[in-house]
Amino acid sequence: MDRRTFLRAASLVGLELAFSLHSRPVQANDSPLAGMRIANACTFPCWAFWPDPNYGDTSQYTMDLEKMHQINMVVSSFAHVGALSGCGECFGYDYTVSKFYYALDNAAKGHFQIIRRAADIPDNVSPDSPPGAIFHIHGGGLLENNPSRLDDLYGLGIRQINLLDNQNYPPTDLGDCQGQAPRFSGMSDLGKQMVERMEALGMIVDVAHATSAALTDICEICTSPVIDSHTSPSLTDQVNDSYRQRSWYEIEQVAKTGGMIATWPFRMGDHRATLASWAREIKETKDRIGIEHIGLGTDGVVPPYIGLVSGYSSILNLADLAQEMLNQGLSIEDIKAFMGGNYLRILGERLV
Q1: pTM for the complete prediction?
Q2: How many domains does the structure of the chain reveal?
Q3: What are the helix (H) ranges across the chain?
Q4: What is the CATH number for 101?
Q5: Under 8 Å between Cβ of 163 and 194
Q6: Does the residue 224 lie in any domain?
Q7: What is the tens place of the pLDDT at every residue in 139-165?
Q8: C-alpha span between 95 and 309 (Å, rounded)
Q9: DSSP string covering 4-35, please?
Q10: How far apart are the first and last CA of the chain?
Q11: Would you place residue 171 in the very low, low, confident or very high pLDDT band (cuts 50, 70, 90)?
Q12: CA atoms within 13 Å, Cβ hemisphere of 196
């Protein structure tokens, strides 16, 4: 056994032990989420992709398998960065694909199940029916300007991609990204070709990190629902690109495709500092564009200069958010739509 094979086997054993310690409690009957199917449009469960000692303690993450079981999160995006390089690491195509092979191994052990078709999504999670994972690539740099790689990634099980990355990673030639100087006045011709191919394959087209012009281009190309998997509405016309917020105009463009924006628990100054203010934002979005166009996307890494809204430390606090939504006058049906119904609807339309 060579060193790479040994380390890979050892790390998987470590992950197996960590997962075996997790209890499998059911969703509490007195929770506002009782009986609901929760679905998360964006998260970064690093433990699923690279089970080494650095990721052995999943308590540092706002979402892990135990928590998914506890709230009946039947499906979630399992995202991995697809940039060429970033955060001091070299990613690229081969590196990223190798991470998804680790995730396939973990799925084969029964920890979660890979969702290739909407019919694969479990009705509820249980020891015999683990949560579903939508393989999601965050950034199109790994495509290296080669549209045929989308077919290869689809074959691997990738079902959701946001082609554009944020300012922490090198720019691609696919289109303009928030936080970077515009070069294409939207999507490039190559980027538009990538979007068309994603649509043809049946992938979820994610406009996260796209500038307003790039988002508009994508929405004009797509004939099926698109999403922004992790964002929040801006209360003014001055959108803070570094926080990846969306103007009401941009949200309306997404809604016109039949899609949704997925909002996150990140703090955005005093106006978005608590679970109550997050709930008020959901209510305002419903009033402006309809509850069918907003959902949940918790994201993963929390930038220290942003932080989380008060009252949120993990997906277990989604029950508290649901209570705040009730306090704002939203209905149980509204909560079902936000907490998973809308994302499940789009998955049902695309993953056939």
Answers
A1: 0.90
A2: 1
A3: 3-20, 46-49, 65-70, 92-108, 148-156, 189-201, 212-221, 248-256, 275-289, 318-327, 332-336, 342-350
A4: 3.20.20.140
A5: yes
A6: yes
A7: 998 898 999 999 999 999 999 999 998
A8: 34
A9: HHHHHHHHHHHHHHHHHT---PPPPTTSTTTT
A10: 41
A11: confident
A12: 9
In a domain, 171, yes or no: yes
**Percent residues over pLDDT 90 in the chain:** 68
Q: To 10 degrees, the CA torsion angle through 219, 234, 321, 38?
A: 10
Q: Burial code of 130-166, b = ≥16 C-beta within 10 A, e = fewer?
A: bbbbbbbbbbbbbbeeeeebbeebbebbbbbbbbbbb
43 close to 80: Cβ distance less than 8 angstroms: no
Residue span of the structural domain in which 139 resides: 39-350
Rounded CA-CA distance 337/76 in Å is: 15
CA gap 181, 317 in Å, rounded: 37
The DSSP annotation for 162-187 comes to E----TTS---SSB-BTTS--SSSSB
pLDDT of residue 84: 63
Condensed to tens digits (0 to 9), the pLDDT of residues 205-237 reads 999 999 999 999 999 999 999 999 999 998 766
- Report yes or no on 74 lying in a domain: yes
CA distances from 242 to 180, 197, 213 (A): 9, 28, 16
What does the block give as tokens for 302? 């929390």
Residue 37 tokens read as: 């199917």
Instruction: Tell which residue, 298, 274, 324, 286, has the closest CA to residue 32.
Output: 324
In a domain, 6, yes or no: no
